[in-house]
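Section 5.1 Outputs to date
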Amino acid sequence: MSTTGAHVPDDGAGGLSGSGWWWWTRRRGFLLDATLAAVSALECAFEGGTFAEKTGIVPAAGALLGILVGTVLLLRRRWPVAVVLVGIGVSPAQMGFLLTLVGLYTLASSEVPRRITAALAVMNGLGTMLVAFLNFETSLRHADDGSMSRSLTLIVSALVALGLTAPPVLLGLYARARRRLVESLRERADGLERELELLAEKALERAERARSDERTRIAREMHDVVAHRVSLMVVHAAALKAVALKDPQKASASAELLGDMGRQALTELRQMLGVLRTASQVEASVVPAARVAPRRPPESLESLEFLEPPERFPGLEEPERLEPLTAGPCLAELEALVEESRAAGMGVELSVEGEFRPCEAPVEATVYRVVQEALTNVHKHAAGAKAQVRLAYREAEIAVLITNGPSDGTATTPLPSGGHGLLGMRERVTSHGGGFACGPTPDGGFRVSAMIPAPVG
């Protein structure tokens, strides 16, 4: 770092086109320095002419030298050390009062090391004290008490030097500290702005993930509810066609059961569509709240605002989680589910091991959906096959096993399948920290097993 100059931010507002005029970046800073230099040049010209006249030098030469010395003040922002040295150099000629004061202030407020500022301030103080002492000594040379007069002169000279040196230096140090405080606060505000923008982006990502999860969950619910009901309706419709002419009474019972299943499917679809409307409203309120308008960087200490911590911005909070689509089925309805498959002509056996106990609603709904989807797959892919459903209440978990034998080949038209049933079951079970397994059996059938943690409460 150069010891002969330092950059000092311009005072005031307003800017110049391009990169500025030399080391001035603002028009007001240039006008201020030009005004100070003009006043200093006039002062030094007058004082230089007076000093030249006292010493027998041509006054015009002294005035010209004073003008050159005063205009040095134009360099105060670029080379404050040089300005102070010039002021110290011309102090014996008793000129450069404004030059010295402004130079000391600029030096103290610049980024020059403080040890250099202190050294130059001491040099200026000693020089001012010496000049003042010589002037006072000349004035008091004919006093009655010479020793007392000399002591008083020394004290007054020291006070004068202190009064002309300390105020501009202290004021410059204050301006320097204030500028650094503003810069640190501005950096803090910029850092908080960047943090808020990052948090806003994360909130948007969380909202997008929440929407994706909801879409997956809704698709899984639609698949479980609609596919099972519609599959049973298709099976009953085929049976109704087969017995319509041979056994009208059985055909009437099948038609009634078919209507009941259709009504149940419509009721569950209405429930899901109602929740979807609520979900869309919640998501629409989450995303705009996460958008935070950026703050404009402060221009001064007075306009600088302390930003609130990120945790106080409601738009950046965790997106609200949506309620489950429906209350969900429970294990008490498992017998009715098995009866529906039996009514469709499937041979299903249900066995329960362990003592029945109520579990959390999501756990019971998951076990129910696994059994429902497994039986639906039997209707689709193994028509006429027998199935076994085993439910076990254990100490810290609930386990379910669904197995079926091979198809008897009686199905004429295979039911359509989207291929997402097993994947949906796995997602349901693993979301509760459980385990899921499925695969063919040696006899040509299929097995589905799931285990979900459900400790005894």
